[in-house]
Specification:
Elements lengths: L1 H4 L11 H10 L4 E5 L16 H10 L2 H10 L7 H4 L3 H9 L9 H27 L3 E5 L12 E5 L8 H17 L6 E6 L4 H12 L6 E5 L6 H44 L3 H15 L3 H18 L2 H10 L16 H10 L3 H4 L13 E5 L23 E4 L17 E10 L13 E7 L2 E16 H9 L3 E6 L2 H12 L13 E12 L5 E4 L8 E5 L5 E5 L1 H13 L10 H16 L2 E3 L9 E3 L10 E5 L10 H6 L2 E7 L4
Parallel strand pairs: 1-2, 1-3, 3-4, 4-5, 18-19
Antiparallel strand pairs: 6-7, 6-11, 7-8, 8-10, 9-10, 12-13, 12-14, 12-19, 14-15, 15-16, 17-18
Helix pairs in contact: 2-10, 10-12, 10-13, 18-19
């Protein structure tokens, strides 16, 4: 099993505090702050603003002696009770004197004190652990922005207020955002804690509002602090990522500042253009090519800005530093949204405002334009026949690959007789739509109903004359749906025309295919026994890379809760012959899934099947099934001996 063990990241096994101490030291993590409203010695007016009945009883019972005591601490104590109770100073005066006042003030603060006492116990657990791990630890309350300093680690409560309302959450978010803004180049690591059971659902919005980097951010329910194992695991992950996170943060900061500088220089150069310069360019170049002046100026700005960005030394230097990041064991974080395909779509296609067709004048086609083709009028049975003009099926896509210099408007001085199109099929993004090496595909393309993949058939081209094109677009049988960026369109053109050499392209990002995930073990009756894991409701993602490489990753919450669920499965509920594999999977599943569980490149998507782990060297403890697993079928004796943890993967709908 050594090949399997070598893939387990150090921070993903249960590390003891001494190991965390060594990891902190090697990562140069020396100080931490714990931010919680429980650290405030006095309550705010907001903390007890919901105790209206208790306040009313207290005010009615106040004696002359109480008034004397209160006025000595708060001069306006004889003011309107409904007004002064909203003043922090008055509330804190009452709290400080609560044991001396004759009127019962303790009832006002009972809930506050109970909650604070519980939270302080959690703070003390974290503090003791961090001190034992060798850190200098400070406690901060709700007003923390100016006191975080150069702390390497920030542990902060989601709600900085006992009522745990939006104001308390906003105080936490905006305060930490100010801290992160002041430390963009070297941001602290952040561990977000809360009593709120919705913490996993609030994680992403908190991260985005505060502008945190995913690799330097983790969450932990306060209820999990009863066992410091979870605390150690999260701290280990943060510490392992510290240097890489700060390198990426430095790059993003340099990019943010460098783009502004590059934009300023580009705008200065653009302002130097005279109308006479533009007129000369139009006369000598644009009129001949029937190019619009405004479109050309946008292209000019685009290329000038890119040039200036490439001239920013901080951007290039910090980007080179990222080359040294060691990331072989990092698993992609699955957020449940198609962020990666969306990014691919932006990289391959132009923005809508850039390509949307004009309502004025004759039809104009540009190199890289993509049209959606409809069939002829539907028959009485509802079937759409092929489009006769383009000779393609209903719902096909066509790409303009005629050389840009030859594409002039109909009716111009030198119009081409026809336009060359490449025919493609629009398909859902799935395992079989994302293949390497690139065989001529637009891997992600935004349509009205979501992201799709376009499989271009480089042997299937059409030439259509302008008269038919005008007629098809005029009758809405051909509709503009986008424009590919020039390098991507050129690459497809070169593949199609079998020209000499290919345009060098950046490596295409891997596909991410969402799947529903179910977990099983082998029950005593030999049938699959499902384990209830709420975290698996987040689903999983199958990543498809080069040469058919495929791996399954789960959300961080899914990995954590699956590990806990396996630990709670009574061995007696597992088939005798499977218990050895079950124990192995219980020990290794969290780390192996977090590192990305390899799937066989022979995986087929048209039928349920068992998918062995290709890296397990014939001794796997985790098996995956593709498609619906038959829960009522007794597994073979051979399978019962081999199976420890069974994951059933069910593809979800298209993105």
């Amino acid at each position: 099993m050594s090949p399997v063990r070598s893939r387990i990241p150090k921070q993903d096994r249960a590390m003891n505090v001494e190991e965390i101490k060594v990891l902190f030291s090697s990562s140069d993590i020396t100080s931490a702050v714990i931010i919680d409203d429980a650290n405030d010695d006095l309550p705010t007016a907001q903390a007890v603003s919901n105790k209206i009945a208790e306040w009313d009883l207290f005010e009615e019972a106040r004696t002359d002696a109480d008034d004397v005591l209160l006025k000595a601490s708060y001069s306006g104590a004889d003011g309107d009770p409904t007004t002064v109770r909203n003043d922090d100073a008055y509330v804190q005066a009452v709290y400080a004197l609560r044991d001396q006042l004759e009127a019962d003030a303790k009832a006002i603060f009972q809930t506050y004190e109970d909650g604070r006492s519980s939270d302080l116990q959690r703070v003390e657990i974290i503090e003791a652990y961090l001190i034992e791990a060798g850190l200098k630890v400070s406690r901060l309350g709700t007003e923390f922005k100016n006191d975080v300093g150069d702390a390497d680690l920030v542990v902060i409560d989601l709600y900085l207020g006992s009522l745990q309302d939006d104001d308390a959450k906003n105080k936490s978010e905006m305060g930490l955002r100010a801290v992160m803004h002041s430390r963009q180049v070297a941001p602290p690591l952040v561990l977000l804690i809360s009593n709120n059971g919705a913490l996993p659902d609030l994680r992403n919005s908190y991260r985005d509002k505060v502008k945190l980097l995913e690799s330097g951010f983790r969450i932990l329910q306060k209820s999990e602090l009863d066992d410091v194992t979870s605390l150690g695991r999260q701290l280990g992950r943060l510490a392992e990522n510290k240097n890489q996170t700060q390198a990426f943060a430095a790059f993003l900061t340099a990019l943010d500042e460098g783009v502004d500088k590059a934009k300023t220089r580009t705008m200065e150069a653009m302002r130097q253009l005279k109308l006479s310069d533009i007129a000369q360019v139009r006369q000598l170049l644009l009129d001949h090519e029937e190019e619009k002046t405004g479109t050309y100026l946008v292209d000019l700005f685009d290329r000038s800005l890119q040039h200036e960005i490439e001239c920013e030394p901080e951007i290039i230097e910090t980007a080179r530093a990222i080359n040294d990041i060691d990331i072989p064991h990092y698993a992609p974080h699955v957020s449940g949204s198609p962020d990666l395909p969306q990014m691919v779509a932006r990289a391959l296609t132009r923005g809508f405002e850039r390509w949307k067709p004009s309502d004025e004048g004759a039809v104009s086609l540009k190199f890289g334009d993509v049209l959606l083709i409809k069939g002829e009028k539907a028959s009485k049975h509802g079937k759409r026949p092929n489009n006769r003009a383009f000779q393609v099926e209903h719902g096909s896509a066509v790409l303009v690959i005629t050389a840009a210099c030859d594409l002039v408007n109909a009716g111009s001085r030198e119009p081409v007789n026809s336009v060359l199109f490449l025919v493609g099929e629009i398909v859902s993004i799935g395992l079989d739509s994302w293949k390497y090496p690139d065989d001529g595909r637009t891997y992600a393309f935004q349509l009205d109903d979501g992201l799709r993949c376009i499989k271009w058939d480089t042997k299937n081209i059409r030439t259509v004359n302008w008269a038919l094109i005008d007629k098809q677009i005029g009758s809405n049988r051909a509709r503009f749906i986008g424009r590919l960026r020039e390098d991507h369109a050129t690459s497809l053109q070169q593949k199609t025309l079998s020209s000499i050499g290919r345009v060098g392209m950046a490596a295409t990002l891997p596909a991410s295919i969402p799947v529903d995930v179910e977990a099983y073990v082998v029950g005593v009756d030999g049938k699959p026994l499902q384990i209830t894991v709420d975290g698996l409701n987040d689903g999983g993602t199958v990543f498809v890379g080069t040469k058919g490489k495929r791996s399954l990753t789960l959300t961080e919450r899914g990995c954590d809760e699956l590990a806990r669920a396996l630990a709670e499965v009574p061995p007696g509920s597992v088939a005798q012959s499977s218990r050895g594999r079950f124990r192995t999977s219980r020990e290794q599943s969290d780390a192996r899934l977090r590192a990305g569980l390899p799937l066989s490149p022979k995986l087929k998507v048209d039928a349920p099947q068992k998918v062995p782990d290709p890296e397990a060297k014939g001794d796997p403890c985790i098996h995956t099934y593709w498609g619906d697993l038959d829960r009522d079928e007794v597994l073979s004796a051979q399978d019962q001996k081999k199976l420890g943890l069974i994951l059933n993967l069910i593809p979800t709908a298209g993105l």
